[in-house]
Specification:
It is a single chain. By secondary structure, the protein is α+β, with helices and mostly antiparallel strands. It has a single domain, classed as 3-Layer(aba) Sandwich (Aminopeptidase), CATH 3.40.630.30. Helices cover about 20% and strands about 30% of the residues. A seven-stranded mixed beta sheet has the order 1-2-3-4-5-8-6, with helices on both faces. Helix 1 runs antiparallel to helix 2. About 35% of the residues are buried.
Length: about 180
């Protein structure tokens, strides 16, 4: 898939040999934090998270952006996916590549048929249809100020939404990221 602004832009699912590229993208995009790079290794590396999904954006064969989705659970039952993290290499930011990657992956199976939750900048994610969530409480965002969902319908019964084990196993970094 190419866009006029970025000839050669294409998306493909993660392959195990992509892990060093994914780690580098997250390490550079979130520097000085290492949390996102370490999290990607915890999710995609040895002992890979079951039912995790990841994609790369590339220009030609050069990986320039990455996105991960992990299971979201309520009382042990799958209720959708968490979108986290997503990043674009600095020299390619501001060109619509991150938005194109998010749009593309939100339409891919099985992500495209299920609820998707995200903790992030509301003004960025609301353009994709993400809306505030009150029922599913995010453990990383007391009050859910930055927690959003797509294709989710609150039934009025509050619960603490669960994240993949890697989100708890990767130590917080010196930047205070978890």
């Amino acid at each position: 898939m190419a866009t006029p602004a970025q000839p050669g832009l294409n998306f493909r699912p993660f392959e195990e040999t992509d892990l060093p590229y994914v780690e580098r993208i997250f390490r550079e995009a979130f520097a000085p934090s290492r949390f996102e790079a370490d999290l990607s290794r915890g999710i995609l590396g040895q002992g890979r998270e079951v039912d995790a999904h990841a994609w790369l954006a590339r220009i030609g064969s050069l990986p320039i952006a990455a996105i991960l989705f992990t299971p979201a659970k309520q009382a042990g039952q799958h209720v959708g996916y968490h979108l986290a993290p997503v990043a674009v290499q600095a020299e390619f930011q501001g060109k619509g590549i991150g938005s194109a990657l998010v749009s593309h992956t939100l339409a891919q199976s099985p992500i495209g048929e299920q609820a998707v939750f995200v903790l992030g900048d509301p003004s960025f994610y609301e353009r994709f249809g993400f809306e505030p969530v009150q029922q599913a409480r995010c453990p990383f965002d007391p009050g859910n100020r930055h927690f959003r969902a797509l294709r989710w319908f609150d039934d009025g019964v509050p619960f603490d939404i669960a994240y993949a084990p890697a989100f708890w196993e990767v130590p917080s970094d010196d930047c205070g990221n978890r």
